[in-house]
Write a structure and sequence with these properties.
Chain A is an all-alpha fold. Chain A is built from nine helices and no strands. By secondary structure, chain B is mainly α. The longest helix of chain B has 38 residues. The chains are: A mainly alpha, B mainly alpha.
């Protein structure tokens, strides 16, 4: 492991840009290949059909998962290549990891850690914390973010083809279970506080109209998912407001 | 708005745009952060925080899973704050939100176009990639990063151009009442999107009770602080 450390650091740094060439053909594939490449450098590299070149080509094949957990596949695939695993096994390993890494990452980060901290920051700003809430959000979020990326790469490299055991890590499992309720509670607290914060400059009637419009918009968004989005609602409300403002001179 | 401030906003908006997907996803792209820093650059923290909160709520409507298409609210928030700074008061909030929404829509379209361009380039380079030459792989990847950098800069520049052009032309046209209605519309849309997006995340399982408990606690605190 000691000889691998500088390459490990390089792979970790490259993982921060894993979605840099995101495309509909290979999704994260190229980014995963670029991140994996430093870890493959110990493989025999002589000739155009060398194990190193074959592994680099495999590393850039289609891959899709949560970007923060992609390191698990990067480390595991690189370790499997070093252990001399057959090409088909490495391909199967990568394909098998897409679903679980996407699902756990989405639950843990996109639907847990991120909205949890965002909700707390919204509540703090509404209570007068100002810019310090945004800074605190950024710092705390990235402690978890960087730790997760580093853990994923390390565990992948440690376990190789047996990487599935890393997904049973109690912290990961417990985190995914706790993130949901914590997020729900934090954003629940934040919503009334932000409503008060944003509506504070309006009069009584104005607040009542905002509440009615927000209620109608909420129903529309909740009942017509996919057809009505926040963006469409916002632009629609703005158009209505322009007409109302023009009539109500 | 001085040239130095404009350049700083363009630089910040570009970094924010690249952060969303490409590098390093540290969430400076979140409207809360993007708006606060844009407000600090303009010396108008109040506008930065308010529009940051509005677009953060709109962001709850988006769950960036798989290859789903969504608006890009980071550079949009920067443009929104710049607009609000140029048109003070209620007009600033409403007009800023509208400019931000249009910029967000534009950002989303450019992201989709860029991914299609990336797909074509990667498809054309399949043989070279299959040769396992790491230089080809890195070149293609860095090319994608640079394209996203350019895309984010163009989106931010267009948003800032609108922010610079629109307020002086609208200030005389929209009455104070009209401006207030527009600001109210932006706040209502943001609250609706925030609530609906959160409820979709929460689902109908046990988390719903936690959401209800949080909502109740938030209402109590809001009433207590009035």
């Amino acid at each position: 492991m000691a000889a691998v450390t500088p390459r490990f650091g390089r792979a970790l740094l490259r993982l921060f840009a894993v979605q840099g060439s995101y495309n509909y053909e290979r999704m994260l594939g190229l980014g995963v290949g670029v991140a994996e490449e430093p870890l493959l450098r110990g493989l025999p590299a002589e000739g155009s059909a060398s194990p190193y070149r074959a592994a680099v080509a495999r590393g850039a094949h289609f891959f899709n998962a949560h970007p923060y957990l992609a390191g698990l596949a990067v480390g595991a695939a690189a370790r499997a290549e070093h252990d001399g695993a057959p090409a088909e096994l490495v391909e199967r390993l990568r394909a098998a990891l897409c679903g679980p890494l996407g699902s756990i990452g989405d639950r843990l980060v996109w639907a847990g850690w991120l909205p949890l901290l965002s909700g707390l920051a919204l509540a703090a700003i509404s209570l007068g914390a100002g810019w310090t809430a945004a800074v605190a959000f950024l710092v705390v979020y990235n402690i978890g973010h960087v730790a997760l990326r580093a853990w994923a790469l390390r565990e992948g490299w440690k376990h190789g083809v047996r990487v599935a055991s890393a997904l049973n890590n109690p912290i990961l499992q417990r985190g995914a279970v706790l993130a949901g309720p914590a997020m729900a509670c934090a954003v629940g607290v934040a919503l009334p506080l932000t409503a008060q914060f944003l509506a504070s400059s309006f009069g009584g009637w104005g607040r009542a109209v905002i509440a009615a419009a927000a209620g109608a918009g909420f129903l529309g968004l909740y009942l017509l998912p996919g057809r009505l989005t926040g963006l469409r609602l916002g632009l629609g409300f703005a158009a209505l407001a322009l007409v109302a403002g023009w009539i109500w001179q | 708005m001085s040239l130095e401030v404009l350049i700083a906003l363009l630089g910040w908006g570009t970094l924010v745009g690249v952060d969303l997907v490409s590098l390093p996803q540290m969430m400076i792209a979140r409207p809360l952060v993007a708006g606060t820093v844009a407000g600090a650059i303009l010396g108008d923290l109040d506008a930065g925080l308010k529009l940051g909160v509005i677009f953060e709520l709109l962001q709850y409507d988006i769950l960036p899973v798989g290859a789903v298409r969504y608006p890009e609210y980071g550079p949009a928030t920067v443009a929104a704050v710049a607009t609000a700074h140029g048109a003070a008061g209620a007009l600033g909030l409403g007009l800023g939100a509208v400019v931000g929404l249009v910029t967000g829509l534009l950002g989303g379209i450019t992201m989709h176009l860029m991914r299609r361009i990336n797909s074509r380039i990667v498809g054309a380079a399949t043989a070279a990639l299959e040769s396992g030459d790491p230089r080809v792989l890195v070149r293609l990847h860095v090319g994608g990063l640079l394209r996203d950098f350019l895309r984010a800069a163009v989106v931010t520049a267009l948003g800032l151009a609108v922010a610079w052009f629109v307020p002086p032309h609208v200030t005389g046209v929209l009455t104070p009442r009209g401006a207030t209605v527009m600001a109210g519309a932006a706040v209502a849309a943001a609250l609706a999107a925030g609530a609906a997006g959160t409820l979709r995340l929460v689902g109908r399982g046990p988390n719903l009770a936690w959401f209800a408990a949080g909502l109740g606690g938030g209402v109590v605190v809001a009433i207590w602080l009035r």
